[in-house]
Amino acid sequence: ARRDPHQPEFQQAVREVMESLWPFLDQNPQYRRQGLLERLVEPERLLQFRVAWLDDRGQTRVNRAWRVQHSAAIGPCKGGMRFHPSVNASILKFLAFEQTFKNALTTLPMGGAKGGSDFDPKGKSETEVMRFCQALMFELYRHIGADTDVPAGDIGVGAREVGYMAGMMKKLSNQAACVFTGKGLAYGGSLMRPEATGFGLIYFVEQMLHYARRETHGARVLISGAGNVAQFAAIKAMERGGRVLTLSDSGGTLYARDGFDEDALAEVCTLKNVRRGRLSELAGDARFEYLEGRSPWHIPAEIALPCATQNELDGNDARTLVHNGAVCVAEGANMPSTLEAVEVFQQAGILYAPGKASNAGGVATSGLEMSQNALRLSWTHAEVDARLHAIMMEIHALCVRHGTRADRSINYVQGANVAGFVKVADAMLAQGVC
Ligand code: NDP
Hints:
- The protein is an alpha/beta fold.
- It has helices at residues 8-27, 36-40, 89-105, 126-140, 159-173, 193-211, 228-239, 262-273, 315-323, 339-348, 355-358, 361-375, 381-403, 412-431, and strands at 45-54, 60-71, 77-83, 112-117, 149-152, 220-223, 243-249, 252-255, 289-292, 303-305, 328-330, 351-353.
- NADPH dihydro-nicotinamide-adenine-dinucleotide phosphate is lined by residues 153-156, 197, 225-230, 249-251, 307-309, 312, 332-334, 359, 362.
């Protein structure tokens, strides 16, 4: 906190991890050697750079961009790029720190990174988005590589933006490998990558409920967000018999009292992915209630899946969820629950999974994309899905191994943090002080 006084999100992420590691560190003092903790909370490299680009009127625009390479201890740095006006160094440092543990949990050899810009793709033309992506790559290309740092998408960076950045990477590096994951199928992408985070989240929730001997069929599900993660979480939850009651965006919540059906969900996906519109456009539709400026958390349901952004679910939301009978909260987004909300879930004894465990399916499938690229092979849909499912089961097993309490319930925060930490820490100790 003394070193980074103006970085609240980064401090929050570090505190959450360190608090849950403390009992483990007390019992395993070997992990305090070589300044390990001090090194682990300091990114290996943080790049900040200017992105100057021309808008459609020929005016010069200037944005700020970053890449945080947090740790390459177990493999090349790996993590998404985020384009959103709220992006700053604190948010990217927290995301890169979390990514380091998450990537370790996937069982694949990937270090942690994150990057992005305060550029807002909303309201920009196709050509403006392309020019911005190309301008950003003029700087970023020299810092990334298949064995150095492998970026991907995140909020505001989908297939379109990855395509423009990967295309420029190819041009500037004169190499066929575009380095990015989340690529289109036509140029080295993996089947199932778009679905992976949302599907993986539901596979993880099934494991949690199964392990706790809870029924899943017919459960009411609240989902926030209406982007990549939220959409595929909704599709898989419905496929598995859940009743999805909500989706949301930064304007408000779309509430389907009897649950979304396939047609309604397809309409939302078209609205968001093709027309890039707002959920408020469906406000007059008789199938929904549109709750302007509200999040979904006041609606009674058994399962809550925050899939939008950090700190979108606070202590009061958590108390309301618990009061309304929620049994399981699993994070699709990164750090969507505040520290107070997590405390409320833990004290109430409901099942709670932090994003680094429950949303790791996306980066795991990115790891599978890297493997396919290296092999110059493409696996089938079923093959990638089976590997994703197996990885989510393995992450759940790691949480059980490291997070089982005396009463046999699972502390998923502790389980995920300790399992991720041990892998990274062992690699750092073996490689010496560097
Ligand atoms: P998208 O950009 O596809 O969607 C983000 C959604 O969240 C949109 O509906 C957006 O609303 C909403 N949102 C964004 N910011 C806010 C805000 N401040 N308040 C309310 N709603 C907001 O992103 P993704 O679905 O890819 O990512 C969502 C979360 O999941 C992020 O935390 C990301 O880091 C995490 N994640 C994503 C992975 C992936 O594979 N995509 C992998 C692992 C984690 P609007 O449309 O109004 O902007």
